[in-house]
Amino acid sequence: MVQLTINGVARDIDVDPETPLLWVLREQAGLTGTKFGCGIAQCGACTVHIDGVASRSCAMPVSAIDANQEIVTIEGLSPDGSHPVQQAWLALDVPQCGYCQAGMIMAATALLNTTPDPTDDDINAEITNICRCGTYNRVRAAIKLAAANSSAAQKG
Question: Which part of the chain is the 2Fe-2S ferredoxin-type domain (predicted)?
């Protein structure tokens, strides 16, 4: 039995402690927005936040997570899709197939939380998620739009 706080809700989950967090989120918690891509923490489709840090959940056993840590999935980012990053993704039609986009949005959100006005170098260093459709230019543009919109909202 492990205790996890997922999207603000404490849950007791009966699972082997070595089970990857991704499968606990998808199978036990029913949160299927986080995707399986590679299984070796390289592609980023499985990105979630753990205490605000973008983390690859496919290779992280639930035993590595303390009950006091907060896990946020794409479902918990914004219940109505109003988060500035989600809005920028929509405004610029970022996804093609969309499979990697939940992980991309989670990585972009973590970047903007630590670097509110990222440069291209900041984006290159932090957004290492793989998009098979190659929408990287739109991802970069959406991150910059979200940063601008967040900055404008804070000033207003």
Answer: 1-77
